[in-house]
């Protein structure tokens, strides 16, 4: 019987220290501030023969802007589902962050995120960089304001970004980061 599908690749568990969960740093850019890779129709390119993003085009003078994160307040997940009728996968992504303090500054920041789709670059605590939204399909979908009820409660905004990709979330070559973010 002819097999038209790819073979399963081997996976070797990484040895050494444990791989920490969570997001350590985050940067966001408006999808409108992305550029196009020369000779392409995309805002990004993969390294030759790889699934690692080696180039992200930005409009002149634009960068991914850093997001001041509250400790352990970011969650990122993707849920890839296979359509058995077509054999295709769709990865639904969700990123949730907390922005502290209900203030005019925080409100203006949240308002700016509501205006257009975004691309979100994250440095996971494991040291790996991942990006979502380079296809223009990630946007702020839910915002919750909360003053809390007592000392120590969250006072600010909880933001949820959702998106759709046609593959698992891409990793980014770490040597690219310093050239595309406002501050490392």
Give the SSE map.
Layout: E1 23-30, E2 44-46, E3 52-56, E4 65-66, E5 75-83, E6 88-100, H1 104-113, E7 118-124, E8 129-132, E9 139-146, E10 156-165, E11 170-172
Parallel strand pairs: 3-11
Antiparallel strand pairs: 1-4, 1-7, 2-3, 5-6, 6-10, 7-8, 8-11, 9-10
Describe the model.
The protein contains 1 helix and 11 strands; from the N terminus they run ββββββαβββββ. The longest helix is centred in the middle third of the chain and has 10 residues, at 104-113. The protein has one helix spanning 104-113; strands at residues 23-30, 44-46, 52-56, 65-66, 75-83, 88-100, 118-124, 129-132, 139-146, 156-165, 170-172. The chain has a domain at 23-33 and 65-169. It has 184 residues and is mainly β. β5 and β6 form a beta hairpin. It has a 7-stranded mixed sheet, with no helix packed on it. A 4-stranded antiparallel sheet has the order 5-6-10-9. The model has no long low-confidence stretch (mean pLDDT 90). It comes from Mucilaginibacter ginsenosidivorax. This is Phage tail protein.
Keywords:
184 residues; mainly beta; 11 strands; 5% helix; Phage tail protein
Brief overview:
This protein is mainly β and 184 residues long.
Low-confidence stretches: none
What would the average pLDDT be, to the nearest integer? 90
Range of strand content: 35-45%
Rg, nearest Å: 18 Å
Strand arrangement, major sheet: 2-3-11-8-7-1-4
By DSSP, the count of extended strands is 11
Give the N-terminus to C-terminus distance in angstroms. Answer: 53 Å
Q: List the total number of helices.
A: 1
What is the overall silhouette?
Answer: globular
Order of helices and strands: EEEEEEHEEEEE
How many strands, what sense, and barrel or not for the largest sheet? 7 strands, mixed
Structural class: mainly beta
Amount of helix: under 10%
Protein name: Phage tail protein
Organism: Mucilaginibacter ginsenosidivorax
């Amino acid at each position: 019987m002819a097999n038209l599908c790819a073979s399963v690749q081997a996976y070797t568990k990484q040895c050494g220290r444990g791989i920490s969960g969570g997001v350590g740093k985050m940067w966001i850019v408006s999808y409108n501030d992305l550029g196009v890779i020369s000779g392409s129709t995309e805002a990004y390119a993969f390294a030759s023969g790889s699934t690692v993003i080696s180039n992200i085009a930005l409009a002149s003078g634009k960068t991914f802007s850093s997001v001041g994160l509250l400790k352990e307040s970011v969650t990122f997940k993707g849920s890839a589902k296979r359509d058995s009728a077509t054999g295709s996968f769709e990865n639904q992504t969700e990123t949730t962050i907390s922005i502290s303090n209900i203030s005019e500054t925080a409100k203006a920041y949240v308002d700016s995120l509501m205006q257009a789709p975004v691309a979100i670059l994250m440095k996971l605590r494991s040291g790996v960089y991942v990006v979502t939204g380079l296809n223009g399909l990630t946007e702020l979908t839910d915002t919750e304001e909360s003053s809390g009820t007592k000392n120590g409660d969250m006072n600010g905004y909880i933001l949820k970004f959702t998106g759709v990709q046609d593959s698992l979330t891409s990793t980014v070559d770490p040597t690219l980061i310093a050239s595309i973010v406002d501050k490392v």
